[in-house]
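seq as requested:
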Amino acid sequence: MSATLETILTDAEASMSKAIQHLESELAKIRAGKANPNMLDGIMVDYYGTPTAINQVANISALDARTISVQPWEKTMLQPIERSIMAANIGITPQSDGNSIRLFLPPLTEERRKELVKRCNAEGENGKISIRNIRRDAIEQIKKQQKEGLSEDATKDAEKEMQDTTDKFITMVDKLLAAKEKEIMAV
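struct tokens:
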């Protein structure tokens, strides 16, 4: 196999790995009944006019299985953090005691669990779409190589290898989703 084909295939595989990592981080944000500081990742706070990640202006920790504590480094940040959490619409109402903010996670109802599973499946579908787009781009590059003189057999072999890699990553997505669904549905 030519060096160019090797490069195309390894780049595609690296991109697919990044898609899996992104899916894992998105699934970590979806709560499964346990308090997890990662649930607040992606929430931006207005820090003196600059949108800043919440973990850059406060210490976030899980006190127990149902409580998350947000301890701002500056007392003046209590209100902006509280507003940002409310605006993020994560289904939790922040409660401030003047020094810190506590988030009490309500127990998940059956209906809410099913909603979370749907959200996980939507994230999984986005991951699969990303992986398929990477495959499509790689196959286009392989066909371009064929037009530049690559043999038909080498093209077919490279396309088959690309499809095998794609199938491997799609299976990874399905495994991640199955594990997250099991975690969410566990009472």
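The mean pLDDT is 87.
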